[in-house]
Design brief:
The N and C termini lie far apart (64 Å). The mean pLDDT is 97. It contains 15 helices and 13 strands. The protein has 438 residues and is of the alpha/beta class. The chain binds ligand F0G.
Length: 438
């Protein structure tokens, strides 16, 4: 077998066959990672091969994940792969956001352009391929919304039965709508994400249902290609910083692994620094990083309007901590007001994103103000989800009715409210004259 499952804990490193249905190390309880023993072609050859696949019409080559399959060497053949055209997300220059944050330049890698509107699709195509390869018929996840949307789509496309568990009343409507429309059995559980995950981990094992949360190491494999595609799009020029929001910390783990593998393969000469941004009300990883030692202490009742990252007990923290340290990175936290402001600015760029994604720009601004990021640093922020995931937040913001979970009204500094007008051409002409922008 070309690849195996290996315990992430440095003191253990036990290895298991790639076809074993396990999510944590049976010996020590550590997280697992996929390790490939397959030698890679030389970097020039790989770059050429990956570039040439962009001209191919084969679905495997067109996928922005499977195009890089030399780094995903866990299948014997590609017959279990179901692609919905994931990846291939743009890198967008955003001068207005750069100015607002105090940078000369800023680019967004926008994962919201994925088939179900978030970065989860990059990982899900791999997770579902592994489920099929293992002969599983039912798949499940606990989700703050995007994982469930993505899993529902990929499982249904593959003919598997998707089962989704979400915190009742605390996911954005766009995401719930997707799970329903893609045909997932959907349970709205009266508990928070962390509580439901603990429940479902036990349930999945008892019932033989394959778990597709980011604790699943095959999801991480797919998500690491976000970094590979980004570097490919930049002709392998390494940025100074890659900034991303942190929730359950699977993406931080994936980005770090991807970057380390690129370095080891000789595809990049150095690592960029990872900056992980959390919401103030759900920032256990920030606290751990600040303390600098010990284990993560869970936040019992995480609260943030950025519901995607409303997570108090992130499972992937050991991997994420390793990756942040390896890249000489850091963790920052931002307030609800800072997220709301940043989100409106990203909208004004004509780009837009969901609230959790906007934590990146809020974090960059804060790190610029404290001098950690320099004005001429080369910064890429990863926008994780599409603007239309959470239209309720947007409507409330622009009608100055957005309140924090504790009921405090946020300032809608960049509000652009809809205007109710009479059906009267003269009045409308007058109003448009008043509102003319230079
Ligand atoms: N941004 C968005 C839009 C997300 O949906 C998530 C996670 C994150 C950021 C954080 O990523 O967990 O890898 O640190 N959403 C998960 C879900 C938890 O269930 O959809 P992370």
């Amino acid at each position: 077998m070309p690849a195996e499952l290996v315990c992430f804990e440095a003191s253990c490193r036990a290895s298991y066959p790639i076809t074993e249905v396990i999510y944590t190390c049976p010996r020590c309880g550590g997280l697992l990672e996929v390790i490939s023993r397959e030698p890679l072609p030389d970097p020039a050859e790989l770059r050429q091969l990956w570039r040439s696949r962009r001209l191919s019409n084969s679905p495997l080559d067109q996928s922005g994940v499977w195009r890089y399959r030399e780094l995903l060497a866990f299948l014997e053949d590609y017959s279990p792969v179901v692609s919905l055209g994931e990846g291939n997300t743009p890198v967008l220059e955003a001068p207005r956001a750069a100015r607002w944050a105090g940078l000369d330049r800023l680019a967004f890698k926008h994962q919201g352009f994925n088939p179900t509107g978030s970065f989860k699709d990059n990982g899900m195509t791999c997770g579902v391929a592994q489920a099929i390869r293992l002969g599983m018929r039912r798949v499940a996840c606990v989700s703050t919304g995007n994982t469930s949307a993505s899993m529902a789509a990929y499982a249904s496309a593959a003919g598997l039965q998707p089962i989704v568990f979400i915190p009742h009343g605390n996911i954005a409507f766009g995401k719930l709508a997707q799970a329903l429309e893609y045909g997932a059995i959907t349970f709205q559980v009266e508990a928070n994400f962390d509580q439901i995950l603990a429940l479902v981990r036990v349930l999945a094992e008892q019932l033989g249902i394959y778990l597709l949360n980011s604790i699943n190491p095959f999801r991480i494999e797919g998500q690491k290609t976000i970094m590979v595609e980004l570097l490919d799009q930049r002709d392998w020029r390494v940025p100074d910083w890659i900034v991303l929001p942190g929730g359950n910390l699977g993406n931080t783990a994936a980005f770090g692994k991807g970057l380390r593998e690129l370095l080891a393969a000789g595809l990049i000469p150095r690592l960029p620094r990872l900056a992980v941004i959390q919401a103030e009300g759900a920032a256990p990883f920030y606290e751990l990083f600040r303390r600098g030692e010990g284990k993560l202490e869970a936040v019992r009742n995480p609260e943030t309007l950025a519901t995607a990252i409303r997570i108090g007990d992130p499972v992937s923290w050991p991997k994420a901590l390793h990756e942040v340290r390896t890249t000489n990175g850091l963790v920052e936290k931002v307030s609800e007001q800072e997220i709301a402001d940043a989100k409106a600015i990203i909208g004004q760029c004509g780009i837009g994103c969901e609230p959790a994604s906007a934590a990146t720009l809020a974090g960059i601004r804060k790190l610029r103000q404290s001098g950690v990021i320099a004005p001429d640093d080369d910064v890429v922020a990863v926008l994780t989800g599409h603007l239309l995931k959470d239209p309720d937040y947007i409507h409330r913001y622009h009608t100055s009715d957005l309140r924090t979970p504790s009921g405090q009204r946020l300032v809608s500094r960049y509000a652009n409210p809809p205007r109710v007008v009479p059906c009267d051409p003269d009045k409308l002409a007058g109003l448009l004259e008043e509102l003319r922008s230079e």
